[in-house]
Amino acid sequence: MKRILPVLAVLLTAPPAGAESDFQPWTELGVRYRISKQFRLKFDQQFRFDEEFRDNCRHKIMPKLAAVWWINKFLRLEAGYRYKAEIIESQESPYTDSYHRFHIDTRLRYRIKPFTLRYRLRFQEQFGQPLHEDMIYKHTIRNRIGAEVKFPCGFAPFLSGELFLRIDDPDGAMHKWRLTAGLDYEIGSHTITVFYRFEEMLGDPQDPKRHILAVGYHYAF
Prior knowledge:
The chain has one helix spanning 4-13, and strands spanning 21-34, 39-50, 57-70, 75-89, 95-112, 115-128, 136-149, 155-167, 174-187, 190-201, 209-220. 5% of the residues lie in helices and 69% in strands. The protein contains 1 helix and 11 strands. A hairpin with a 5-residue loop joins strand 7 and strand 8 (155-167). By secondary structure, the chain is mainly beta. It has a single domain, classed as Lipocalin, CATH 2.40.128.
């Protein structure tokens, strides 16, 4: 087993022959507030570091606020807003682009202990105006399906796949897809999450494939 794990890590992070790749570390801190049995508020603060381009790098700071309505144990609805400050450190002079994103989604859950199957359908609307460019609007539909196994000791490994569809995009509807494998560890009100994510853009073949390693912490009260 000790010999297999390093080999798997190399296979996951190595880019295919002839393709460019980009490694991105992500971090997230968040809180969950339970208003009642059916309603909750969530606040998350993400920080992403992106070296997608050779001549510059990007830092993304993204606070997000969302409200969740648990209709029953199988179905819940969510609506939220996220602000993104994209700090671009170019060789000429640093500058910051700002974006606003609203989303609504429906989530289904079916549980057969210790397994849980999940599906999320999300519609999101993002707009912003990069430096020296016109206002940009992005209309996206996201489909995500996943599963997790929860153990009594608090560990819950999970796996998910997600497809992004763009509406009215000249490059085509198929925008990108993601594959994520990770682990949640829950101790009372505290949850620690780590995951690896592979992401591939479908609209532009020149975009690099992304290998993402993330860690997060959330507190619920």
